[in-house]
């Protein structure tokens, strides 16, 4: 005999007309996640950030048109010349730059700044516990190995060649093989796929057909310049023949020993290297297109949140730099697109997010509990159009070379960068209004020999404003803000002019 309460409930529902609603299997299905991350890619390479860019990425452009583009997404910075390493640690763990494991730093790895067994609370581990199938393909090295191992399926390799087997197509094929296996097994579990690439990080060996499109060659002769070609991308407007001062790490490998560039910053070298970079980036676009087409065929595309980003940006001639060891916008910023259910097509977010916010956002979008170790902020309210940003202030660090190195802070349109290089006697401050000077032109960009090469003449206010008397209050305000952020985030260093 049924308990009286179980009899009364349906009778009451009949009397009140509140018949139970059935929920279809489709309505119960949890959303998937496809997280796509490139290796070394400036946001200014893309037309949805830089309409004058000559890079063709029709698939990624379509993602931008169908989802939300973030105009102020940043990685927090690095304590290593291998900037990839802390960036990917932050992506995986949702923790800030001084609160993640540091290779060769056992004291910090066991201090209260880094929780014990952190890998058990990283991206794949969190989603595994929530019942998701997790798969990863990406480069090997300069990453968070303990977190990477948490993925159920791992297919990693360093693929920076110019063929299908040695380049980005290999990573794409790993995802396609995984999806084919799911389809054959009739696997209906939700999935989290970490779809990473080894390009456009150097060595940028593009495929022959894409190199030809961008007029580039896989240049290997250190004693000669690469051939000039009118099809090569134009020089960036903020190109310089050299950086105007020692920034704390101008002798790092990326600045002096990239095959095809080395220490050269001449027009032929940089345009050829940009052509190689674009060839590799367009190849990534092709592989993303293959995977999206497969998801569409499987009927999974509309129920999948797609993130597209990079671990950090890249200079390639901008400001006379080649690598990723700086805090200019072309390198501190990252591209970020999110497309998926409930996100308005063609929307843009002007406000600030970090890459470390991605884990919290993934959890929020899927109803998965974020780990207690997470420090990131979910930007789901931004994706839903409920607010413009989740952060007011952004902090950036680079001290992979001489300490303390570089620090940056941004609030609104204003950005401050400070350089402290004791051995070179360098104590430099830069102040930019990014609304008026988005490419962060310096006085050197106003010199006629630079203008002759770039073909762009900056406006008078497109310069470093740090030493102009009318901006002294703004400089002091941001310097105070920077010190507050350094203290809040447990930065172990102080700059020359800080208390």
Write the layout of secondary structure elements.
Elements: H1 4-16, H2 25-28, E1 32-39, H3 58-66, E2 68-74, E3 77-78, H4 84-93, H5 106-109, H6 123-129, E4 133-138, H7 145-148, E5 153-156, H8 168-185, E6 191-200, H9 208-213, H10 253-256, H11 267-298, E7 304-310, H12 329-332, E8 336-339, E9 347-354, H13 358-366, H14 380-383, E10 393-398, E11 405-411, E12 414-421, E13 426-433, H15 448-454, H16 472-488
Parallel strand pairs: 1-6, 1-7, 2-9, 3-10, 4-5, 4-6
Antiparallel strand pairs: 2-8, 7-8, 10-11, 11-12, 12-13
Helix pairs in contact: 8-11
GO molecular function: arylsulfatase activity; glucuronate-2-sulfatase activity
Protein name: Sulfatase
Pfam family, one: Sulfatase
What does this structure look like?
It is built from 16 helices and 13 strands. The relative contact order is 0.16. Residues 1-27 and 106-110 have low confidence and may be disordered. Strand 11 and strand 12 (414-421) form a beta hairpin. The chain is α/β, with parallel strands linked by helices and 499 residues long. The chain has an 8-stranded mixed β-sheet, sandwiched between helices. The radius of gyration is 24 Å and the shape is globular. Helix content is 30%, strand content 17%. The protein has 2 domains: 32-392, Alkaline Phosphatase, subunit A (3-Layer(aba) Sandwich); 397-488.
């Amino acid at each position: 005999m049924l308990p009286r309460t179980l009899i009364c409930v349906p009778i009451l529902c009949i009397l009140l007309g509140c018949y139970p609603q059935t929920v279809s299997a489709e309505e119960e299905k949890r959303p998937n996640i496809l997280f796509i991350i490139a290796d070394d890619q400036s946001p200014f390479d893309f037309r949805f950030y830089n309409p004058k860019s000559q890079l063709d990425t029709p698939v990624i452009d379509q993602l931008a048109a169908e989802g939300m583009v973030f105009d102020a997404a940043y990685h927090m910075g690095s304590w290593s010349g291998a900037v990839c390493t802390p960036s990917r640690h932050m992506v995986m763990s949702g923790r800030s730059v001084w609160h993640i494991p540091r290779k060769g730093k056992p004291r910090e790895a066991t201090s209260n700044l880094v929780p014990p067994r952190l890998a058990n609370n990283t991206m794949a581990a969190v989603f595994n516990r929530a019942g998701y199938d997790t798969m990863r393909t990406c480069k090997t090295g300069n990453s968070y190995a303990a977190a990477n191992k948490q993925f159920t399926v791992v297919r990693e390799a360093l693929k920076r060649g110019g063929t299908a087997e040695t380049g980005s197509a290999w990573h794409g094929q790993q995802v396609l093989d995984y999806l084919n296996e799911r389809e054959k097994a009739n696997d209906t579990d939700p999935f989290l796929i970490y779809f990473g690439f080894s390009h456009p990080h150097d060595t940028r060996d593009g495929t022959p057909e894409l190199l030809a499109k961008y007029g580039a060659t896989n240049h290997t002769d250190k004693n000669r310049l690469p051939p000039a070609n009118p099809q090569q991308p134009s020089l960036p407007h903020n190109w310089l023949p050299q950086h105007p001062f020692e920034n704390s790490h101008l002798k790092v490998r990326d600045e002096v020993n990239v095959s095809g560039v080395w220490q050269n910053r001449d027009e032929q070298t940089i345009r050829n290297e940009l052509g190689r970079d674009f060839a590799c980036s367009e190849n990534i676009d092709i592989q993303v297109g293959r995977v999206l087409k497969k998801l569409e065929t499987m009927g999974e595309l509309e129920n999948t949140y797609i993130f597209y980003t990079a671990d950090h940006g890249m200079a390639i001639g901008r400001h006379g730099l080649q690598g990723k060891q700086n805090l200019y916008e072309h390198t501190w910023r990252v591209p970020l697109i999110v497309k998926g259910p409930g996100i308005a097509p063609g929307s843009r977010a002007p406000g600030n997010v970090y890459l470390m916010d991605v884990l919290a956002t993934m959890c929020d979008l899927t109803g998965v509990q974020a780990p207690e170790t997470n420090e990131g902020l979910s930007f789901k309210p931004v994706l839903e159009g409920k607010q413009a940003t989740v952060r007011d202030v952004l902090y950036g660090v680079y001290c992979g070379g001489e300490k303390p190195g570089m620090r940056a802070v941004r609030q609104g349109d204003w950005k401050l960068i400070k350089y402290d290089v004791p051995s070179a006697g360098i104590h430099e401050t830069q102040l930019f209004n990014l609304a008026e000077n988005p490419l962060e032109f310096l006085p050197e960009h106003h010199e006629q020999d630079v203008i002759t090469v770039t073909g762009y003449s900056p406006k008078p206010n497109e310069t470093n404003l740090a030493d102009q008397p009318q901006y002294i209050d703004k400089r002091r305000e941001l310097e105070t803000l920077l010190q507050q952020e350094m203290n809040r985030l447990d930065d172990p260093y102080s700059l020359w002019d800080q208390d």
